[in-house]
Specification:
By secondary structure, this protein is α/β, with parallel strands linked by helices. It has 13 helices and twelve strands. It folds into three domains: 6-58, lambda repressor-like DNA-binding domains (434 Repressor (Amino-terminal Domain)); 63-174 and 303-330, Rossmann fold; 176-300, Rossmann fold.
Length: 340
């Protein structure tokens, strides 16, 4: 098979080799009609740019790191690629990222950062120029990776607000505090008068904010509430629900949908009707919300839209590294189903 060269494209387009090179490398000093002619010639000839050669000109690798950072406690192996890729949340994030990256021919590379050694590996990867920027998914309030990447002056956008308010880093997030308040207000509007919250891990900023919003709303409404701890798993939701039911609650806000499912199952195991005896509201609007009966009323965060915006912000930073940090906070919405 004969390799198509820049000269071949230039001959078909009727322009110079240098003009073809400028179009391929997205230089701004080419007239739109010339860009169109060159792109048509590329399509006709089947030319495939040499990515390695192009990177020497643009100083871009054409890839970005997608880093999922967290902690696995005493067993890092329990938090591997299989667990991450099987999580519906990460699937929704990935779909949103790709919707913005694919049109720009930017390719994501996934890395996990659970241990200090893995965080060091991420920093080394970007320091060596193997990626143009980082899309970081991290919810741990004590995660050091945002600071480490910021110190490297690499373009970074974070999913969830940074652990330190002073950290100069762009991010997207949902208004978790407003979401917690929405759940409390909905339960109160249903007539619930003894509320409980199944809190997520409080080392996660989002879990803290959801609980804070819920508690502020119950105080404003003059309704007593009880807190039970959870870990975002179905099993922890069931254990926490058992504790809350022992306190006689008639309305429960679970800080994510998995725990909401666990709460419904525990109530039903006790012979209680959901929502007649106890109403349940979750958070996320994940696939879990539709996999129980009754289906779960939940506070929706628009994860795909948030991830797409995350990628768009990074692409902007790559085009203009001097841009100041940007924060985009999305509004939550209540999705009413059968559980409340």
């Amino acid at each position: 098979m004969t390799t198509v060269t820049l000269e071949d494209v230039a001959r078909v387009a009727g322009v110079s080799r240098a003009t073809v090179s400028r179009v391929i490398n997205e230089k701004p000093d080419v007239a739109p009609h010339i860009v169109e002619v060159v792109q048509e010639a590329i399509a006709r000839t089947g030319y495939v740019p040499n990515r390695a050669a192009r990177s020497l000109v643009t100083r871009r690798s054409g890839t970005v790191l997608v880093v999922v950072s967290g902690t696995a406690g005493d067993d890092p192996d329990a938090w591997g690629p299989g667990e991450v890729l099987a999580d519906p949340f990460f699937g929704r994030v990935s779909g949103g990222l790709m919707s913005s990256l694919r049109p720009r021919d930017v390719h994501p590379v996934l890395m996990l950062a659970v241990t200090p050694a893995e965080r060091t590996r991420v920093v080394t990867y970007v320091r060596e120029g193997s990626a143009d920027g980082v899309l970081l998914v991290s919810a741990q309030s004590d995660d050091t990776l945002p600071s480490l990447l910021s110190d490297e002056r690499v373009p970074v956008v974070l999913f969830s607000r940074p652990p330190k308010a002073s950290l100069p880093i762009s991010y997207v997030d949902v208004d978790n505090r407003a979401g917690g308040a929405l759940a409390a207000e909905h339960l109160a509007a249903r007539g619930c008068r003894s509320l409980g919250i199944i809190a997520g891990p409080l080392e996660m900023a989002g879990a803290m904010d959801r609980m804070a919003g819920f508690r502020e709303a119950t105080a404003r409404l003059g309704i007593e509430h009880v807190v039970a701890p959870g870990t975002f798993s179905v099993e922890s939701g069931g254990r926490a629900m058992a504790e809350l039911l022992d306190h006689g609650v008639d309305g429960v806000f679970a800080s994510n949908d998995n725990m909401g499912v666990g709460a419904i199952l525990e109530a039903q195991d006790r012979g209680l009707s959901v929502p007649d005896d106890v109403a349940v509201v979750g958070f996320d609007d994940s696939t879990s919300a539709l996999m129980c009966r009754p289906t779960l009323t939940t506070v929706r965060q628009p994860i795909e839209t948030m991830a797409a915006e995350m990628a768009r912000l990074l692409l902007e930073l790559l085009d203009d590294p001097g841009l100041p940090p940007t924060a985009h906070l999305f509004d939550p919405t209540l999705v009413i189903r059968g559980s409340a």
